[in-house]
Amino acid sequence: QNITYEGSPFPFQISTRLYPEWSLGALPHMNSDYKVVEEVINALMRTNSSSNCSKAAGYSTWQHPLSYMPLREMQQALGWIQQDPVTSNWKCMRSDDLYGAIVCPSGYFKLAREIVEQQCNVLGSEYACPSGYECLCRPCKKADEVEIVSHISSSCEKMSVCATAEQLAKTTFNIRDNKERNLDLTYKFHVTVTGHDVATEGTISPVNNTYNLTLSTPVMGDNVLELFVGGEQIPNSPVLLRIVEKDCGENMQAQSDGTCQRTKEYEYLPDWFKGISALLFGINCSLSLLFFGWTYAFRENPVIKASQPTFLYMVSLGCVLSSSTILTVSFDDKDFSDEALDAVCQSSVWFYGLGFALSISALFSKTYRAKCLTIDKMNAKKSARVVVSIYQYFLYVALALACECFIMLIWTVYDPLKWKRICASDTTAYCRSIGKCSSDTGVMFVASVLVLHFMFLCYMLWVCYQVRNIPAEFAEHKWITASTVSGIEILFLTPFLVYMTFEDPTTSTLITSIALFFNDFGVLVMIFVPKIFMMFQEHTAESESQENMLFNLRRKVREKLGRSPPVTIESKKAAAESSLNKEIGLQSRRFPSGSKRDLKKRSDSKENVPEIQICQTPKGSNPVSSVSAKETTRSSFMTAFKTVAGTTIREQEEAGKVSSDVASEVVV
Predict the structure, then answer these.
(1) In 203-257, which ranges are continuous DSSP H helix?
(2) Angle at alpha carbon of residue 654, lines to 649 and 658, rounded to 5°
(3) How many angstroms separate the CA atoms of 396 and 507, rounded?
(4) For strand 4-5 and strand 221-229, is the pairing parallel, antiparallel, or unpaired?
(5) pLDDT for the residue numbered 18
(6) b vs e for 370-386, b when ≥16 Cβ sit within 10 Å of the residue's Cβ?
(7) What is the pLDDT of residue 324?
(8) Which helix (H) or strand (E) holds 260?
(9) Closest residue by Cα to residue 522 from 488, 497, 495
């Protein structure tokens, strides 16, 4: 702008009107000496640009003072000085920084601070701010015919992104008609739904020539907003409203309608399940410790001695180890870290494997030893090879544990189980995260362990079949058989059910826990409870008679089927009874005719006499006779039976059909 002063052009470029510079004034006490003031004024007026004083001071000339009213008016217009409404005094209004002190003239508006701070760099290097100075370039912009202001833009230009909002978030546009026409504003908001344009229209009345328009939509993308004032589209219309995806938070995703849907849901085991696991483990652990203590307390009882208490101890400890798995499978990352769960995962298979091997191998060794000391001992060919010491049978327990440890050790070193979370859902937009103990080759190792356990159980059934005729006091074959069959059923059903419910961790883990519980619970109950009843059971003449009647019935059925009984204790009993009958016949012929009725009574009473049993007893013990209440009736037969049975057994011994230790020990 070219401005002249007193007919001469102003030598510098200016952007505003000229305002008075600093003035020189006389203080009040100089009024009494007017001549001094006048001389100073005259001296300054005579100074020109060529004088040494002006050159040294950096000014040109002095002139008479100008009016400061334009300067005051400018300060008032900019708001730098304001009148106090209470005291009516004028005071300076200082800003915190240079940007705050800028006041744009009428028809202009001040740009945002961040825009103004970058204006000088945008304009080029010639507008670069010197070091140590604060510069603001073009802070004001001329107002549009109709201003559109949003939360991110102080002036929206045509086809520019005027505002950005999330789905369904409300966005308000402040629209001002600078022409002050006081006309209604009409808008059209266009969104694209399934490839079709959908427009929303509306009308807003002005308030002091200002309009407030609030919009929201779930449709993402750049949506078009057209604005009309008095039916005419304003120059800077249309503008764009950019809708972005709604921030729904962690593991949530916004849908096309703006609602939030969970994209990843972490599923944990419920608290009640952990309580059930603790209860199941507590039951099995309490029973194991109770039966362990009971066995130790009654270890001198004949029933417990015959059941080999050392192996019963192992069964109890094995069930405690195996049942510990019920606790470890109930842990998840809700309460524990992934590192801790990695250790828990692998320890679970160790607890189960070692517990199973210890309890089953103990039952096997116990049953196999009973077979060797009874059936094999009575076999002349096997008798010499029978091992009596219990410690020799610990090798079977050690072998089972070694096989189990071998698989577990390879598994732990090569590819241990780790705690992992996987998506159990079928859709890509949603993930139901479940935690599992898994490894790349875990299925192979699980199959190896299950096959090994199946082989253990099958061989156990075979041994139980071999000892089926041994009394329950020495080998509880029917109870061990029942628990073994139950274990095989659990071994086959559990993996199938777990596989079917794999995507439901609560159900699959509950199935695993119940299977572990009943597997150990069945072993404990079927092995120890019958012994408790057996120890406290009272044997009477009636109960023994019933047992003998059942045995006789079994023998008669075999005879009717035409089976020739093998040379066993039963055949010896049959031979002894046949000889006894012959002896009875010889004695009857010696009786007088008048005593035949008494003989008949004695013969009839034989039907109620318990069956005579022959079994092996330890050397040095006294033979035991089991007789009924009618001891006097049978007394005449006992002497004859001892003679005949003894002769029969001795003949068998001489013929080499019965071992000498069996022949020497006979129980009637």
Answers:
(1) none
(2) 55
(3) 37
(4) unpaired
(5) 80
(6) bbbbbbbbbeeeeeeeb
(7) 93
(8) strand 260-262
(9) 488
Structure tokens at 249: 């938070």
Residue (of 597, 354, 544, 330) closest to 437 by Cα position:
330
Highest mean pLDDT among 214-228, 580-594, 603-617: 214-228
| Region at 595 (left for phi over 0; alpha for psi -120 to 50; beta for the rest) | alpha
Q: Cβ(44)–Cβ(64) under 8 Å? A: no
The three-class DSSP label of residue 214 is strand
Q: What is the mean pLDDT of the chain?
A: 77
- Provide the pairing of β-strand 264-266 with 431-438: parallel
pLDDT (0 to 100) of residue 622: 38
Nearest to 666 by CA among 616, 625, 626, 622: 616
Amino acid at 375: I
Look at residue 658 and tell me whether its pLDDT is greater than 60: no
With beta carbons less than 8 A apart as the criterion, state whether 106 and 100 touch: no
Q: What is the pLDDT of residues 38-92, one digit of tens each?
A: 888 888 888 887 888 888 887 778 888 888 888 888 888 877 888 888 888 888 8
φ/ψ of 460, rounded to 5, equals -65, -40
The whole-number pLDDT of residue 40 equals 87
Tell me the C-alpha to C-alpha distance, in Å, between residue 196 and each of 199, 231, 308, 324.
10, 26, 87, 64
| CA 237/CA 226 separation, integer angstroms | 6
Nearest to 141 by CA among 102, 94, 171: 102
**What are the φ/ψ torsions at residue 236 (nearest 5 degrees)?**
-95, 20
- Amino acid occupying residue 131: S
Greater confidence (633 vs 298) lies with 298
Tokens of 347: 């320890």
Q: Which residue has the higher pLDDT, 543 or 659?
A: 543
Query: CA–CA separation, 71 vs 16, rounded Å?
Result: 12
**Encoding tokens for residue 404?**
């189990």
Q: What pLDDT was estimated at residue 657?
A: 41
56-63 own/partner pairs: CB under 8 Å, 24+ apart: 62/24
333: left (phi over 0), alpha (psi -120 to 50) or beta: alpha
Distance separating alpha carbons of residues 395 and 318, to the nearest angstrom: 16
Res 593: pLDDT = 44
Q: How many residues does the chain have?
A: 668
Radius of gyration, alpha carbons of the chain:
56
Instruction: Give 507's DSSP letter.
Output: H
Q: What angle is formed at CA 391 by the lines to CA 390 and CA 393, rounded to 5 degrees?
A: 70
Distance separating alpha carbons of residues 364 and 314, to the nearest angstrom: 11
Task: Report the C-alpha gap between 374 and 31 in whole angstroms.
Answer: 146
Task: Encode pLDDT of 425-453 as tens digits.
Answer: 666 677 788 888 988 888 899 999 999 99
333: DSSP letter: T
**Strand 4-5 relative to strand 8-9: parallel, antiparallel, unpaired?**
antiparallel
Task: Say whether pLDDT at 516 is over 70.
Answer: yes
Which of the four pLDDT bands, split at 50, 70 and 90, describes residue 577? low
